[in-house]
C-alpha cells in the first residue's frame, strides 16, 4: 500500500477550501442553531428534587387576586410603596422563575405548576391552541384575566374571561391601553374568585430602553400606582399574589438564567398568610401550588411544587434549573482538551509560548469585556448577522491574520476554538436535538441549556472571525513568499 501523497499546491488548495468553508459557513450554522433554539418547543429531561414534603398547603381563599408586573427586576421592585405594602402585610418572597425567563413559558409554570422543561414550552410567544392540562384558571368557573397588551398570553390558560376581548374591547392596542386600568380595577373589585391582571408597561419599557433608563423607572412607578389602585378596590377577604415573571438587563433583554433576571420579588398577603419579617426564597412552581391550593384546583400529577410551609422553609437553590449531566460534562471536557492539544501540537518546532492560542484568548477577552458571560438575555446573541459579537472579535481576527502570515499553522488557533464550540454544543444538548435531527435522526427539540446555549452562539462567531483571519493569511502566504523570493533575487 502506498501512502497518498499530495503536492504542495493541492495541499494549499485543500487548506484554502477548508478554511473558506469554516469562515463562510460558521454564521449560517449559527443562524440555524439560534432558529432551533427559539423556534422549537420540546420537553427537556431533568432531575428536579425539591425535597420530600409533608407540611400543610395554603388554605382555600374566597377570592384570589394575582397581579403580574411583567419585566420588573428585583432591584427595581425593592422600593415600591404599593408593592412593599403587600409584602409588609404578608410574606415577602424571592421567586426563582426557572429557565428560560420568557413570559408565556413562565406564566405556564405559574398556572400549571410544571417547569418550562416539563411543559416543553421554551421560547413560546404565540398563543397556545388550548389551555395546558391542569391549568388552574380553567378550573375556576368565573376566572377573569386582563392584559395591558400581548393578550395572547392570558388567552392561553383557560380563563373564563380574557380581556381585551375582541367582541367588546377596542381592537386598537393604544385605545385598549387607555381603558385597561379602569377595567382592571373593576375586575379586581368584582366578586370573581380569581382575577389576574397582567401589567406589561415595565417589560415594554425594558425592551425599548433598558432597565437602567428613565423610561423604565417611569413605567415601574406607573405600574406600582396601578397596583395601589387595584389594592384599594379589591375585596377585603382577598388573597393577593403580586409578582414579576423576570427582570431586564440594564440595556434591555431577558431570557437567560442569571439571578438578576431569574429571581424576582414577590409579595403574598391575605387569608392564610402569616405576616413575616423575613424574606423567603421559593420556586415559581411552589407558588403555583399555593395558588392552586387557595383556589381548590388540582395541578397535574407531575407538578412538583411543595406545600406552602415546606416551600418557605427551604430555598432549594437552583433546583428548577436544567443542567448538563456528568457524562455530558466529561465528553465536553474531553472535546475541549482534544482541541487544545491538537492546536498546541500543530507546530512542535517552535517555542511553547508561540503555540498558545493567543488569538482565541484575545477573542474571548474581547467578548467578555464587551458583552460579559454569554447570556440568552443579551439581544446580540440572537442577532442574525452577529455583527456586535463579531466586532468584539475583530482584534482577534487581526491577530490570527498576523500569526498566520508569520507562518503559524491554521489549526493552532482554530483547533482549540472548534474544541470549545464542540464542547458547548454537547453541553446544550445540540447533538441529539439539533445536529442529528438535521440528518433525519431522532426528534428535534430546543438545544436549550442555561449558559451553554448562549455560549454556542458566541463561539460560532469566534470560530468565524478566527477562520477569517487565518484564511486570509493562508491565501496571502504564497504571494508573500513569492514577493520575498523576488526581492531576494533582485538583491
Ligand atoms: Zn419581554
UniProtKB/TrEMBL annotation:
> Which segments cross the bilayer?
325-344, 356-375, 387-406, 418-436, 456-476
Q: Which UniProt keywords apply?
A: Membrane, Transmembrane, Transmembrane helix
Superkingdom of this protein's organism: Bacteria
Matches recorded under InterPro entries: Alkaline_phosphatase_core_sf, Phosphodiest/P_Trfase
Q: What is this protein called?
A: Type I phosphodiesterase / nucleotide pyrophosphatase
Amino acid at each position: 500500500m502506498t501512502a497518498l501523497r499530495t503536492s504542495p499546491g493541492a495541499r494549499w488548495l485543500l487548506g484554502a477550501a477548508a478554511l473558506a468553508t469554516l469562515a463562510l459557513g460558521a454564521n449560517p450554522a449559527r443562524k440555524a442553531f439560534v432558529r432551533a433554539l427559539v423556534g422549537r418547543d420540546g420537553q427537556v429531561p431533568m432531575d428536579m428534587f425539591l425535597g420530600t414534603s409533608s407540611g400543610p398547603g395554603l388554605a382555600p381563599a374566597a377570592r384570589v387576586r394575582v397581579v403580574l408586573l411583567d419585566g420588573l427586576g428585583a432591584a427595581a421592585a425593592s422600593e415600591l410603596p404599593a408593592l412593599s405594602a403587600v409584602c409588609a402585610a404578608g410574606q415577602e418572597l424571592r421567586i426563582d422563575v426557572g429557565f428560560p425567563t420568557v413570559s408565556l413559558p413562565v406564566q405556564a409554570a405559574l398556572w400549571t405548576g410544571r417547569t418550562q422543561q416539563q411543559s416543553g414550552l421554551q421560547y413560546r410567544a404565540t398563543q397556545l391552541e388550548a389551555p395546558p392540562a391542569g391549568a388552574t384558571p380553567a378550573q375556576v368557573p368565573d376566572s377573569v384575566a386582563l392584559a395591558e397588551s400581548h393578550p395572547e398570553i392570558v388567552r392561553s390558560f383557560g380563563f373564563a374571561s380574557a380581556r381585551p376581548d375582541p367582541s367588546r374591547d377596542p381592537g386598537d392596542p393604544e385605545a385598549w391601553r387607555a381603558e385597561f386600568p379602569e377595567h382592571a380595577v373593576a375586575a379586581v373589585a368584582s366578586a370573581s374568585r380569581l382575577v389576574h391582571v397582567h401589567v406589561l408597561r415595565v417589560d415594554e419599557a425594558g425592551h425599548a430602553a433598558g432597565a437602567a433608563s428613565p423610561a423604565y423607572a417611569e413605567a415601574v412607578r406607573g405600574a406600582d400606582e396601578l397596583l395601589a389602585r387595584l389594592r384599594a378596590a379589591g375585596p377585603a377577604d382577598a388573597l393577593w399574589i403580586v409578582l414579576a415573571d423576570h427582570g431586564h438587563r440594564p440595556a434591555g433583554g431577558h431570557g437567560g438564567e442569571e439571578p438578576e433576571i431569574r429571581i424576582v420579588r414577590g409579595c403574598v398577603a391575605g387569608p392564610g398568610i402569616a405576616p413575616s419579617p423575613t424574606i423567603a426564597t421559593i420556586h415559581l412552581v411552589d407558588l403555583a401550588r399555593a395558588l392552586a391550593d387557595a383556589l381548590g384546583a388540582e395541578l397535574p400529577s407531575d407538578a412538583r411544587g411543595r406545600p406552602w410551609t415546606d416551600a418557605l422553609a427551604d430555598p432549594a437553590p437552583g433546583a428548577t434549573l436544567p443542567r448538563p449531566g456528568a457524562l455530558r460534562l466529561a465528553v465536553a471536557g474531553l472535546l475541549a482538551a482534544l482541541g487544545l492539544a491538537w492546536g498546541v501540537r500543530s507546530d512542535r518546532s517552535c517555542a511553547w509560548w508561540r503555540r498558545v492560542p493567543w488569538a482565541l484568548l484575545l477573542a474571548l477577552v474581547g467578548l467578555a469585556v464587551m458583552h460579559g458571560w454569554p447570556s440568552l438575555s443579551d439581544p446580540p446573541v440572537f442577532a442574525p448577522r452577529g455583527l456586535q459579537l463579531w466586532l468584539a472579535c475583530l482584534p482577534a481576527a487581526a491577530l490570527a491574520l498576523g500569526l498566520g502570515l508569520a507562518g503559524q499553522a491554521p489549526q493552532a488557533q482554530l483547533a482549540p476554538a472548534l474544541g470549545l464550540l464542540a464542547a458547548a454544543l454537547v453541553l446544550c444538548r445540540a447533538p441529539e436535538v439539533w445536529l442529528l435531527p438535521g440528518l433525519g435522526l431522532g426528534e428535534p427539540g430546543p438545544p436549550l441549556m442555561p449558559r451553554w446555549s448562549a455560549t454556542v452562539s458566541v463561539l460560532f462567531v469566534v470560530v468565524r472571525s478566527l477562520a477569517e483571519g487565518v484564511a486570509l493569511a493562508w491565501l496571502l502566504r504564497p504571494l508573500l513568499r513569492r514577493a520575498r523570493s523576488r526581492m531576494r533575487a533582485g538583491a
